[in-house]
Amino acid sequence: MRPVSNNINIKNKRASFDYEFIDTYTAGIVLTGTEIKSIRQGKASLVDTFCFFSRGELWVKNMHIAEYFYGSYNNHTARRDRKLLLKKKELRKLQRTSDEPGFTIVPTRMYINERGLTKVVIALAKGKKQYDKRQTLKEKEDRRMMDRMFKR
């Protein structure tokens, strides 16, 4: 059995700045062979990704997984739509709430679990206003100042 690397943790830092998270879910993702190999090398990005429903299934759009270097003609497309795997009850709940105005579903983190499976943490989110973003920056700066003071 191959050793499993648990140090893969790809985050979408911009999502927490732009959105207020209401609820989070952990979903599986359908990948091809070359995609999982690229993820294990850490060559993936969640920047500008979002989720949408199509025929009752949840899909992630704009997720960038770099082409595998050693892949041949079987290599994958870097920005294709990928299916997310959730239980039907969770899918129905997400679809009901995401249909309301102002709500969206955003991937926040992608990691490889102890069994070697890739998981995506998605969040039901509501967009922040400009003044909320300024408040977030102010709190971040305050925390940084407090940490500096305690280090001395």
Please explain how this structure is put together.
The protein is α+β, with helices and mostly antiparallel strands. The chain is built from 4 helices and 9 strands. It has helices at 13-18, 33-40, 88-98, 130-151; strands at residues 9-11, 19-29, 44-45, 50-54, 57-61, 64-65, 82-85, 103-112, 118-127. The strands form 2 sheets. It has a 7-stranded antiparallel beta sheet. The longest helix is centred in the C-terminal third of the chain and has 22 residues, at 130-151. The mean pLDDT is 87.
Main traits of this protein?
alpha+beta, 9 strands, 34% strand, globular
Give the SSE layout.
Blueprint: E1 9-11, H1 13-18, E2 19-29, H2 33-40, E3 44-45, E4 50-54, E5 57-61, E6 64-65, E7 82-85, H3 88-98, E8 103-112, E9 118-127, H4 130-151
Antiparallel strand pairs: 1-8, 2-7, 2-9, 3-6, 4-5, 5-7, 8-9
